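Study this one:
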Amino acid sequence: MKHIQVVAAVIVKNDHVLIARRPLDKHKGGYWEFPGGKIETGESHEEALVREIAEEINIRIEAPQLFERIDFDYPEKSVSLNFFLTEAFSGEPEGLEGQAIKWVAWPELANYQFPEANQPVVKKLQNWFSEKS
């Protein structure tokens, strides 16, 4: 089975989280996700994260902290997902690959369809916001 290493950014601004819609022609197309992508050979998790976020949504993230790590097996592939949380970034997010992006108030995250592998992160993030409030 194909195994993929992925990094994703949980970008927080006040009580909102930035999410992006997966392209329809990709695995889990049309679902919402935290922006990120595959780690390239020789990259650290942080290097891949900074590169992917710059390429996908045109911002520079700062001080990302590991938030959650999940290994998940889909029928067609297995993924290791490394989610990093940051509240510090520069620039204004825009979908450089044609994807929809939006800031969502954290209580509304449950109204969006995320891939199965992202569900534990959504729940953990909601708990994180609840404890922070």
Observations:
- The mean pLDDT is 94.
- The first strand starts at residue 2 and ends at 13.
- DSSP finds two helices and nine strands in the chain.
- The beta strands are 2-13, 16-21, 32-33, 36-38, 60-62, 65-73, 77-86, 88-90, 101-105.
